[in-house]
Design a protein that fits this description.
Length: 249
């Protein structure tokens, strides 16, 4: 044994303080994305590698034309804007699934829920039975739900469109596209957005041409398409306070 190895072996074990986030999580949380208690659940901080610019909530100058108090979704640049009345907007990074890419034009948020449960639609079960079949009976609300901490339900007229704006535990998806899903945000961001949104709130989806015109080729399009994620039923139904990857909503 070398001298340096002997010294290391005899050194006292480091003390881990439960109040020190670096000791607990291995990194210093970023403001707005730190440990969070919500609805009886302890949400861990979002690791910094998922929050590299522009993948974090920001107050920005709003370059679009939509009125204050509404939401605009840019599925190409992977942003959602909550528009304020002073020429600014809160901009949130999003993930956009294949279903989300089919979202067009205008919808209205007519319902919102905290820690919602989730049941796959008949179309999901028919088209991707290997992904959604194990969850046909539904997933209860909580940290294991693919809808995350909050969900905003989009309607056309008086009918549910089955499109959702919601949270996710699949952190790597934010800023990218998935093979399935609607419009997903970090749980920290959907909680922030939820508290700003009233019922009803109008939601507009940008066209590809408008996205490129307003943001330019540096930001539009942005991200890559990720492969589908298949999750065992045990990891969903057995979860308590452990984050799991969602099967795509």
């Amino acid at each position: 044994m070398t001298g340096s190895a002997a010294l290391a072996a005899c050194a006292p074990a480091p003390t881990v303080s439960p109040d020190d986030p670096v000791s607990r999580y291995g990194f210093a949380p970023i403001e707005g994305y730190g440990p969070l208690q919500d609805g009886g659940y302890d949400l861990p901080p979002v690791p910094p590698q998922y929050l590299a610019w522009p993948n974090r909530r920001q107050l920005v100058f709003y370059e679009g034309e939509r009125p204050a108090g509404t939401i605009e979704i840019d599925p190409y640049a992977k942003f959602l804007y909550y528009i304020l009345g002073d020429g600014t907007a809160w901009r949130y990074p999003i993930a956009v699934g294949r279903a989300g890419l089919a979202l067009r034009g205008q919808t209205t948020i007519r319902q919102k829920k905290e820690w919602p449960g989730w049941t796959p639609t008949k179309n999901m079960l028919r088209t991707q039975p290997d992904v959604y079949g194990p969850f046909a009976g539904g997933v209860p609300g909580g940290v294991a739900s693919p809808l995350g901490a909050r969900a905003l339900y989009l309607y056309r007229g008086g009918r549910d469109s089955y499109f959702r704006i919601h949270g996710t535990n699949d952190l790597r998806s934010i800023g990218n596209s998935g093979s399935a899903g609607c419009i997903r945000l970090f749980n920290h961001d959907i909680i922030d957005l939820y508290d700003r949104v009233s019922i009803p709130t109008e939601v507009n989806v940008r066209t590809e041409a408008d996205s490129l015109r307003l943001l330019g080729p540096t930001l539009s399009p942005r991200g890559v398409e990720l492969p589908p994620t298949i999750v065992s039923p045990e990891s969903i139904y057995g979860a308590t306070e452990v984050a799991v990857e969602d099967p795509g909503v």
